[in-house]
Each structure stands twice: as C-alpha cells, then as structure tokens.
Specification:
- It is a single chain.
- With 419 residues, the chain is mainly alpha-helical.
- Helices cover 77% and strands 0% of the residues.
- The protein has helices at residues 4-22, 28-32, 35-66, 69-77, 83-89, 99-117, 124-152, 158-183, 189-210, 224-236, 238-258, 261-264, 266-290, 293-308, 320-331, 337-346, 353-381, 384-409.
- Helix 3 packs antiparallel against helix 9 (189-210) and helix 5 crosses helix 7.
- The radius of gyration is 21 Å and the shape is globular.
Length: 419
C-alpha cells in the first residue's frame, strides 16, 4: 500500500502535469523554455550523437576487417534488431509509475554497451553480440522518453515537439557522420567509441538533473503479460496496424539503402550520410513547423514517395553532385512520419501512449536493421548501386499498395478510454 506521502506526491504530480499540458506552446523556443522538455530534448540529442558516432566507427571497422557489404550494413544498424525484443517483452515499463528513474537506469545500461565496444582487441563476434545490449535497452528508453514527452507538452504541441526531435536527429546525424568521417583519419575506432560513451554519459546526467518523476500513470504492474495484452490490442486494430506498417517498412528499406553507402563509395559515404540527414532536417522543419495538421495529412503520401523514388537513379551510377542532391531530396521524405505519428497518437488511449509510442519507435528501428540486412544481402549478389535502386523500388511498391489501408484508417478512430 502506498504511504500518505506517496499519495500526496501523486496528487501534486498530477496537478503539475495537467498544468504543464495546458500551457500554450507556439514554437520551438517556447517548448525549450520548459525545464523538463529541455532535459528530455538535450538528453536525446547527446544520445543520438553518440549512437551515430559509434555506428559509423563500427561500420568502418567491420568494412576494413571483412570487406563484406552485408556485415558492414548489419554492423551499422544491427542494434535495431534487438528493439523488437524490447517491444515484445518489457515495453509496458514505458507506462510504469517511475518513468524518470526507469529512463536513467536504461541510459546507464546503454552507456555500458557503448563503452564495452571501446575495449581493444574485442572479436567481431563479440562486437555483434554487444549490439544487442544498447538496442534492447534503447528501445525501452525511447518508449519511456516518448511517454514522458506526451505528458510534459500539451497535446496541441505534440507534433511540433516530435518534429523538433526528428530535426535534431537529422542534425546530430549530420554532425555525427561528418565528425566520424573526420575522426576516423585521426583516431582509432576505439577512440571514437570512447567519445560516444562520453556523450551518452553526459546525456544521462542531463536527464537526471532536469526531469522530475511523474505519477499520472497506470497502477497496474508492468511486465511481460501487460506488454502482450497491450500489443495484442494494438495490432488487432486495423487502423493502427496500417499506420505502423507505413511508419516501419518504407522507412526501413530506405535506411537499408543508406547502409550501402560505405560499400558504394567509401570516400563519399560520410558526405552522403550527412546529405540524407540534412534533407531529413529540412523536411521535418518544413512539415512540422509550416504545415497545418490537415495539410500534413494530405502531404503524407507524396512525402513517402519522395523518400524512395530518388534512390532509383542509383541504378544509372550518376555523377557525385547528382548523387548528393538525390540523397538530400530523399531525406526530406522522412517527414512523412510526422502526420502518421500524429494520427497514431490520436487513436491511442492515454494510458497506453508510452508503450504504443515505444512499439512504434522499436518497430521503426527494427525495420532499419531488417532493411540493412535486405540491402546488404542484395549487394552480395548485385553491385551496390543496383542493390540500392532495387530496394528503393520495393519501398515505392509498399507505399503505393498500402495507401488504401492508410486512407481507411482515418475513419477508424479508436474509442479512447477515460483513465
């Protein structure tokens, strides 16, 4: 039984949370003036930069040792496979009663996984095994973080907040890949892993210092049973299922295309990865900041096509300026996730927001790994440029064939329970 002090704290937390969610928010600077949002945001920023650096370092190391496009692609995005385990087993912790403490613990476990990669002489088999550690715990951490995000900003500002997170992800990827391309000429991969671990540790400190504990959560105990119960309800709903497929599959296949940049042209890889991230930044800024909710929804299909169609030109082996421009333009198509995420949130009961957003994030990350594996496998049989265009064609086909299901999902609103 909770103590009287705990009950008082819970009531106070609920009151503060409701007050926070009612605060009008009109722009990015207004969001960042909130202490908790700023803490979640900067913690996410540092963690994303660390993930980008460590992924580039590991991909470069594996490519140097093996020369295998498949292993290189999997090493860069293989951690995303483990996110599925988090989504299927313990994702209900995202809606637990102590989200701040949970997020800090998960950050520390991810830190241990990144730091372990810095140990010199670690066999490649062990490095691939270590990929599972941050992947599993980062998926849970993303669920907790997105659940907290839905509590510390008003519902009307949620898409704006997610767009800022996506913009930052693109910006940190630009800096991370650019820094990785520079640092790999001066530091060993172990040195880059140490830098990534330092960034992860700093992110953990920021979250600890700025985010307070929230108690407007479910009282039921999180665990495997609760995770499965909520997941079954999620995937049984045709509208939400259609949205998840479109959030996962087309994006994952295009990330698979990006995973082949190193085999395609090692010297150009850093520039291409940065160009794609820059395009994503511009797309998220424009769609999240300049378009209304109705216009975002109408633009979603065109954005999903923009994501994949430009990659078809890789089959023609165009000159470098064209390749960079194509990758930049395609990166803007990742902004299609914003209207789809907005629609998914509207169809999700408040009590399940953390887990559902965690599952969405975990599935998107998992499909990045699947896409990398598919593209890497194709590159074992085809030239990298041909493999990139072939995988992009599959992404286009998925987008076109699934469009009717997404349109129908707009009329399948979930009955959100009052909790």
């Amino acid at each position: 039984m909770p103590s009287d002090t705990s009950s008082s704290t819970t009531s106070s937390s609920k009151s503060n949370a409701c007050s926070s969610r009612a605060t009008p928010t009109t722009g990015y600077r207004a969001l960042l003036r909130g202490r908790e949002f700023a803490g979640l945001y900067f913690g996410f920023t540092l963690t994303t930069a660390a993930t980008t650096l460590s992924g580039f370092a590991l991909g470069t190391l594996v490519n140097h040792r093996t020369g295998s496009p498949f292993l290189t692609a999997v090493s860069m995005y293989g951690a995303s496979f483990a996110t599925v385990l988090g989504a299927l087993t313990l994702m209900s912790v995202a809606d637990g009663g102590r989200p701040r403490r949970t997020l800090v613990v998960l950050q520390c476990v991810s830190l241990a996984g990144v730091a372990a990669q810095a140990v010199p002489g670690t066999p490649l088999a062990a490095r691939f095994g270590l990929l599972l550690v941050p992947g599993f715990f980062q998926s849970l951490g993303n669920g907790v973080r997105m659940g907290l995000l839905a509590e510390v900003v008003p519902d009307s500002a949620y898409t704006l907040a997610r767009s800022l997170f996506n913009i930052t992800s693109g910006g940190m990827s630009i800096l991370g890949y650019a820094a990785g391309a520079v640092l790999v000429g001066f530091l060993s991969p172990q040195g880059i892993f140490i830098a990534a671990a330092a960034l992860t540790a700093t992110g953990s400190v920021v979250v600890t210092a700025t985010v307070r504990e929230h108690s407007i959560r479910l009282t039921r105990r999180p665990g495997l049973r609760q995770t499965w119960t909520t997941n079954i309800a999620l995937f049984s709903h045709p509208g939400r299922r259609a949205l998840l497929v479109n959030l996962w599959v087309p994006n994952g296949l295009i990330v698979g295309c990006e995973a082949l940049f190193i085999p395609y042209d090692l010297e150009l890889a850093g520039v291409l990865l940065a160009a794609g991230s820059a395009g994503m930044l511009v797309g998220d800024l424009a769609v999240g900041r300049l378009l209304s909710a109705d216009r975002r929804r109408r633009a979603a299909f065109a954005l999903r096509l923009l994501l994949a169609v430009p990659f078809l030109v890789f089959a023609l082996h165009p000159p470098t300026p064209v390749v960079v421009a194509v990758v930049f333009g395609a990166g803007a198509g990742f902004a299609a996730t914003l209207p789809l995420q907005e629609q998914l949130l509207a169809m999700t009961p408040d009590a399940e927001r953390g887990q559902v957003q965690g599952v969405e994030s975990a599935g998107r990350m998992a499909w990045q790994g699947i896409g990398a594996a598919i593209a890497g496998g194709a590159a074992q049989q085809l030239a990298p440029g041909t493999a990139i265009s072939s995988v992009a064609a599959v992404s286009v086909a998925v987008t076109v064939l699934s469009r009717p299901s997404v349109v129908r999902s707009r009329d399948l609103r979930a009955e959100v329970a009052d909790v």
